[in-house]
Amino acid sequence: xxxxxxxxxxxxxxxxxxxxxxxxxxxxxxxxxxxxxxxxxxxxxxxxxxxxxxxxxxxxxxxxxxxxxxxxxxxxxxxxxxxxxxxxxxxxxxxxxxxxxxxxxxxxxxxxxxxxxxxxxxxxxxxxxxxxxxxxxxxxxxxxxxxxxxxxxxxxxxxxxxxxxxxxxxxxxxxxxxxxxxxxxxxxxxxxxxxxxxxxxxxxxxxxxxxxxxxxxxxxxxxxxxxxxxxxxxxxxxxxxxxxxxxxxxxxxxxxxxxxx
Length: 261
What we know:
CATH class: Alpha Beta
CATH topology: TIM Barrel
Number of domains: 1
Distance between the termini: 9 Å
Number of strands: 12
Low-confidence stretches: 249-255
Shape: globular
Oligomer: single chain
CATH superfamily: Divalent-metal-dependent TIM barrel enzymes
Mean pLDDT: 93
Structural class: alpha/beta
């Protein structure tokens, strides 16, 4: 599993100064990116190529992947990216019932077929909406059952934990349809309020157990955080992952993830 960064983490600084932000990311030992909430164009692709940085996936809402198909494909080809990710469930899928969710599953199937024609795989990224039940079943289970096996899934450790679920259990449950992970930790809820994310190793998720024996289909784990201090928190998360990796190397004789191909 390659260690990457989800660019949502540093989106504000990256929008203001993309070259400087990319240089700062690379200085932290991260050369692989899940591209999200940033422009998708030739200028951005050139900046990435000039720095030897790799785009492991492009994440956007379904409507963007549909309407801007040619632009997304061009960006993927320019960056040697072969994976696009639908970032969020549709509003009708969030608020509606079985019919709306099945309609969204069909939309994923249609979009996957369209991208597959140009050699790009499609995946879906969940939030906590998908752990609500319809007719006794989790929405995520229904989406898995109603989508074509070619549709992959990117699991988010924070949203799984926040929903009261076990990330390791869901990785095992979905198996080889999991192609990537969003690596986010989760603090317990305060006395009044909701759980929130935090740097890796500072919350409640046991990442050593979570990352054990990942299926070979998991290509990358992208550090992501919604933080007011993104660079500080990113540095903490990188240090945690590198320390965790060093520990696994010493105990098991080989790394389980890396920052480069």
